[in-house]
Specification:
Layout: H1 15-26, E1 82-86, E2 90-95, E3 102-107, E4 114-118, E5 123-128, E6 131-139, E7 145-147, E8 156-161, E9 166-170, E10 175-179
Keywords: Signal
Signal peptide: 1-35
């Protein structure tokens, strides 16, 4: 009866392991030192890195007069410049009721998507991928400035987030952050 496997019967290869072992032994075994000849390894001491203190660049810092804590009084001149708008990164948890875990969703945000110019004459120009939207702005109730009929035909509120040091532009559900 012939073997059913595709390779040759094992008896033809029986001498291979013995020949290999003989060749290995002929090269000599490595020296194995007794325990008293082995010196313990001494690791180098690693000093923790101390980062240098960087003072904030006051020439680029927003004026504290630009927006006060309750946003009631505003020096609108702070907003009159070109702003680079982007979507900030975020993370949130989605509950998985049918599972035994929650899902963490992380969004890295975007680079610069739009440019927004707010002018001191009551107008604005918002450069979007679809073209430039020009319109008028007015003083807002809860936010210093409201861009009328701006991006996507919506009114967008504009304020300053002192905590992050960024401009906040939002329509009530979607928002952009901006830096000069």
């Amino acid at each position: 009866m012939k073997p059913t496997f595709a390779h040759a019967p094992m008896r033809k290869h029986a001498a291979l392991p013995a020949a290999w072992l003989a060749g290995f032994l002929a090269t000599g075994l490595p020296h194995v030192a007794p325990a008293d000849e082995i010196e313990p390894f001494q690791a180098q001491t690693i000093e923790p890195y101390q980062a240098q203190t960087i003072e904030p660049d006051q020439s680029r810092a927003p004026s504290r007069q630009a927006v006060d804590r309750d946003r009631a009084t505003v020096d609108a001149a702070f907003f009159f410049r070109t702003w680079n708008l982007y979507v900030p990164g975020t993370a949130y948890v989605v509950s998985q009721p049918a599972q035994t875990y929650d899902k963490l969703v992380v969004s890295p945000g975007t680079g610069i998507l739009h440019r927004l110019n707010i002018y001191d004459n009551g107008s604005y120009a918002w450069a979007t991928p679809g073209g430039v939207i020009e319109g008028r702005w007015r003083k807002g109730d809860g936010y210093p400035i409201v861009l009328s009929r701006a991006y996507e035909g919506k009114d967008w509120q504009v304020g300053f987030d002192e905590r992050k040091g960024t401009l906040l532009v939002w329509d009530g559900s979607t928002w952009f952050e901006a830096r000069p």
